[in-house]
Amino acid sequence: MAHRYFLIISLCGLLAACSADVSEQNNAPYNQSFPSQSGGTFIDAMPSDPSSLIFMVAGESASSAITANIFNTLLRYNKDLDLAGELAESWQVAADQKTITFHLKPGLIWADGRPLTSEDVYFTWQLIIDEKTRSPYASDFQLVTKAETPDKLTFVVHYDQAFSPALDSWAGLQILPKHKLARQDIHTSSFAQKPLGSHYYQLKEWRHGEYLKLERNPKAVLGQAQISTLIERIIPDPGAQFLELMADHIDSMNMDPITYARIIPSRPELQARLNQYKALGNSYTYLGFNLKRQPFNDVRIRKAINYAIDKQEIIDGVYLGLGEQIASPYKPGTRWSNPQLKPYAFDPQKARTLLAEAGYKDTDGDGILERDGKKLSFEVLTNHGNKEREKTVVIIQRRLKEVGIDIRIRSIEWASFITRFIKTGDFDAVVLGWQLGLEPDQYGIWHSSQQKPGQFNFIGYNNPKVDKLLEQGRSEFDPDKRMHVYHQFAEALYEDSPIVYLSAGYGLTAIHKRVQGIMNPVPPAGVGYDSQKWYIPLPLRRTQIQAE
Predict the structure, then answer these.
(1) For the chain, how big is the Rg over CA atoms in Å?
(2) Distance between CA atoms of 356 and 512, rounded to whole angstroms?
(3) Which residues are within 8 A (CB) of 463 and not within 5 positions of it... i.e. 6 or more apart?
(4) What are the counts of helices (DSSP H) followed by strands (DSSP E) for the chain?
(5) One-letter-per-residue 3-state SS of 235-273
(6) What is the pLDDT of residues 472-507, one digit of tens each?
(7) 326 Rama sector, left if φ>0, alpha if ψ -120 to 50, beta otherwise
(8) If 0-12 CB within 10 Å is exposed, 13-18 middle and 19+ buried, where does residue 372 land?
């Protein structure tokens, strides 16, 4: 599900006049509260261009960051993480749990003034399940056996079996306009670069590799956002992002632990201009193996690598302690996290024992194990520009060498990383992260059927027991019974060790104090909840770039 925090790219690289005088900014009344005012420009940065602004085919965070501002969903999560209506005014689940009826709000329109109706919802459903679309999110919607539009405001879906994540799935599907996309190839349509939506903002300009500019949609179905312009700069390097934040060229950034814990607290001029936010996020970093390649088809090798890596060393050294060890793919402290599972201990001797059991010995005395004349050596890929992951791989390399495993590190630009390696399955191992939703179902990531190009089980995991548990969890509505199912699922993953859980990190965000209206205290939904209510008072705006 796309997060509602608007990650917007800055135009400063385009406009030389964008550099506000920092000494002037330090004298601005940032600690003064102002009444809500409409207008202003919010400037942000993100590390890469979206591959497409049709999220069902893009499937990456850069796309979600933009499209969440452009398109609406039937449902959304409120500040307390309970489901609420967005396009849907109400909904009913049948007694047998196999039919859901959505009633749309009356008077919905697209940004071009055309009516938004149940036909658009039906069209979007047909599009995501179409095999030609090849969407990694299709599996949930393929379970709908029949959909109906009895009238313009009613959309009905039927399932053969009860599907407990159903409502959550409809909270994640961005509704697309039928009148713009009908009879088009979704992979080649110009709509992916020039979308038309119904949400708070619309795309005004996109200079690839530089920035995206969004402007307020006067026909937004949920009313008007306070900030009139959102700009998202493409700045791949976090260090460069921070320099822009220091120079007051951007209003917000996701920070690394060093910046959060050491640099900003040591700079009074930054503390005077920035608010910092910290919360355990819904994500984790992992080392994943290509299970279709040797030696990763041997569980002893996977477990040996797990024991050989010191996760706390990574958390302390890379994340400055701003993270937690985990033993399952769920956020610690939630009901879905199995309390009986403990993270794999750092135990190099146990790792060596498992490697020996798998037949690996150092016969030539070079410190690297081999079997049948082949060295225990492989390549680990990660995405270029993510300094935490790059540092993590270096630590992994050192620890694995200590037990006789040689790894080579390769850092790849994100777009190439996804298209050339992940989607094709052409890799040995990767260091990546998974963003977790609020629904515990992880069918799309771990079920053996989800291994086609572009789908999320790209490591090739296949366990009939896990398949059965994932299928069972999808049809169980009793919360306690569901919890038991997903605890068993997490235990099976733990025993198979198809990935090494490295850390669950904290979300660390800096937002300029010129931005007001942020909920305080931060709600469970996160700092970006209700960002359409954020505002920038006139005395605190960058007058050099305002043309309102």
Answers:
(1) 24
(2) 55
(3) 448, 492, 496
(4) 18, 20
(5) CCCHHHHHHHHHCCCCCEEECCHHHHHHHHHHCHHHHCC
(6) 998 888 889 999 999 999 999 999 999 999 999 888
(7) beta
(8) exposed
Point out which residues pair with 144 in neighbouring strands: 159
- The 10s digit of each residue's pLDDT in 371-410 is 999 999 999 999 998 889 999 999 999 999 999 999 999 9
pTM score of the predicted model: 0.72
Tell me if 153 sits within 8 A of 118, measured CB to CB.
yes
For 90-120, the DSSP string reads EEEE-TTSSEEEEEEPTT-B-TTSPBP-HHH
What does the pLDDT look like over 148-168, one tens digit per residue? 999 999 999 999 999 999 999
* C-alpha 40 chain-centroid distance: 27
State the DSSP H helix or E strand holding residue 410, giving kind and residue range, or none if neither.
Answer: strand 406-412
Contact yes or no for 417/383 (Cβ under 8 A): yes
- 400 CB-contact burial (10 Å; exposed 0-12 / middle 13-18 / buried 19+): buried
What tokens were used for 383?
Answer: 């995405």
The H or E element spanning position 370 is strand 370-371
Question: Nearest Cα to 74, choosing from 182, 178, 1?
Answer: 1
DSSP readout, 155-216? EEEEESS--TTHHHHHTT-----HHHHTTS-TTT-GGGTS---SSSEEEEEEETTTEEEEEE
